[in-house]
Specification:
2 copies of one chain form a homodimer. By secondary structure, chain A is α/β, with parallel strands linked by helices. Chain A is built from 11 helices and 17 strands.
């Protein structure tokens, strides 16, 4: 059975403003010193596992040219443009329809486009194991990440004890929302919760059975999209289906209701690179703890993230700041206030300064 | 007797880097919200006191075009270009030579080009009084500033008690160098010390008598420059004289040795605008204590100086920083470290990045 990958690349994240904009979100940025963009890394690490023609990218219409540019090897027909973003469930139904038309049944790895993985070999091992589990019966597999601290910004996966039938594979008891710090600590101490990384592996047939059961209207859309895939009316059918689809995540729409969900615990140096703060975690810092790119002079300056642009930046006596220079905007933000960057974006929206958003 | 003003505009200050550069120093910058440059302010406030044709500007050859541009009303022949900067004594000798040739004797007010004065009417009153004192005998007058705090960055003027002959005028006992904090506090508490503002008033004849006595070689130069002033060989004579002049300040070369020095205590809101920190002192700040110019969004940001350029600046969670954006460089500096900006400039010099210095 064919193994395919579906990369979800429609995200519009604001956390890397001013580098990320509505028309150039995080997945297309290079946030590591190797110069590769997040989506290029996502694709490249799959090379030993999936053929290029079996990688499908679901995205927004406006990002298609960027994807062609950054990933010239991906066949154009594998880049699937959603007419409108309706969260992850419709995105997965669309990819499933196209794959189902091409291969009848196949294994689908569903992967975010903007996460970082440090231990790629261990990642591949985990994915191979997940594929094996997904091929069996109608199993749905979700990749959990072994927590290293009580993070309150992620959802968690609560799993049952192993039944020895499949070593390293755990049946999922339930998905839980982002916890408060105290609850997160309990989860961590219990040894029964993993971070929900948003990576899934299943057969097209398995996930569609669950769509039929839990999101029947979307299942109807899936059938229509599959029917028209590759035909002249595909775009029109897509438009009609997406207009009718409810906006719902795969977690809420399917995973919280489905049976036969298994999780594998990934320990492959996963990082969701959730904000500018992540850059000092995922990159090498200088002897003063600064992560610096571009033309920057630092004097008596410690523990900052400084992303220079075309100008010289002189940083004097700074501590715990994020500095980002782009062609039209400069962000200077204390590390304790990164969540307030969205207030800047709100302000820009209110003032109708769309060129900055 | 004619009253003339000599504006010393050769300074190359680095304290307003990156806005001030070697080829565009502080006196040519606008640092207040009214848009006037420091030298324009200096000239404009003299209007009730001195005719435009009696204002002389001593500067560096390379600044002559900027002065023409910023002060189009000053006659070109009144802009005196020093072939090489040799501190204030040669600068004053040059101006005295030109004025002496034009008017035989005259009162000379010698004034820095880059200081700020808030109470201009009181300033004019003080200068009128100083002119009166300078006309009498061979008095040399220095304008002292009544200290408001124990500043360690200025020289001080120690004066004798008033002898009731000239009310508000004090004979100078001695000039003292920049003190340590403890000494500065003693000066302040004694009531016998004023800040040395670098503003002087005297007759050409009085100061030249002192040059003859204390800097005789420079006096010879003065005679030669006077002789050639207005003639074809003036530039050549200037070049020769300046090459031979020792580099010495008027304070050290004359004032510390001369007799008949009087000081008037100025209380006219003088500010030497010595660093970026001065901007929040001399300008109106917002309700959070920020002095902001340009396109800046502040969120949860207090007590900063933010001078925007052409880009949007988003300041999030900042406190006590200096931020300056120019076309090719950005400075971000904590208020406690403004003195380290010169390390940036040193670094740029060492790396031979002259375009930034």
């Amino acid at each position: 059975m064919k193994v395919t990958a579906v990369i979800m690349a429609g995200g519009r994240g604001e956390r890397f403003w001013p580098k990320s904009r509505n028309d150039f979100p995080k997945q297309f940025l290079s946030l590591t010193s190797d110069g590769e963009t997040m989506i290029q890394k996502t694709i490249n690490r799959l090379a030993p596992l999936v053929a290029t023609e079996d990688i499908f990218i679901v995205t927004n219409e406006s990002y298609v040219p960027i994807i062609h540019q950054q990933l010239p090897d991906i066949p154009k027909e594998n880049i699937l443009a959603e007419p409108v973003a309706k969260n992850t469930a419709p995105c997965i139904a669309l990819a499933a329809a196209v794959i189902n038309k091409k291969y009848e049944d196949a294994v689908m790895m569903v992967l975010p486009s903007d996460h970082l993985i440090k231990y790629e070999e261990m990642y591949l091992d985990t994915m191979r194991h997940a594929i094996k589990v997904a091929k069996k019966d109608d199993n749905l597999v979700t990749i959990g990440i072994t927590p290293t601290y009580p993070e309150t910004g992620y959802g968690y996966i609560n799993f049952f004890s192993n039944d020895d039938e499949m070593p390293g594979v755990y049946k999922v008891k339930k998905f839980v929302e982002k916890p408060c710090l105290e609850t997160a600590k309990e989860y961590l101490n219990s040894g029964k919760y993993l971070w929900n990384s948003g990576m899934f592996v299943w057969k097209v047939s398995s996930i569609m059975k669950n769509f039929e059961m839990h999101l029947p209207a979307m299942y109807e859309g899936f059938l229509k999209m599959k029917e028209s895939a590759g035909n002249a009316d595909f775009t029109a059918v897509l438009e009609k289906c997406f207009n009718e689809f409810e906006s719902v995540s795969i977690d809420f729409g399917i995973m919280e209701k489905a049976e036969n969900i298994y999780t594998l615990s990934g320990s492959f140096g996963w990082d969701d690179v959730g904000s500018w703060l992540a850059l000092e975690r995922i990159n090498k810092t200088d002897e003063c703890g600064n992560y610096v790119t571009g033309d920057v002079i630092t004097i008596n300056t410690r523990n900052n993230v400084i992303c220079g642009g075309k100008k010289l930046i002189a940083a004097v006596g700074l501590e715990d700041l994020i500095v980002v220079d782009t062609d039209d905007a400069i962000l200077i933000c204390s590390k304790d206030n990164t969540q307030d960057v969205k207030k800047v974006i709100e302000n820009l929206r209110i003032c109708n300064r769309r060129e900055f958003v």
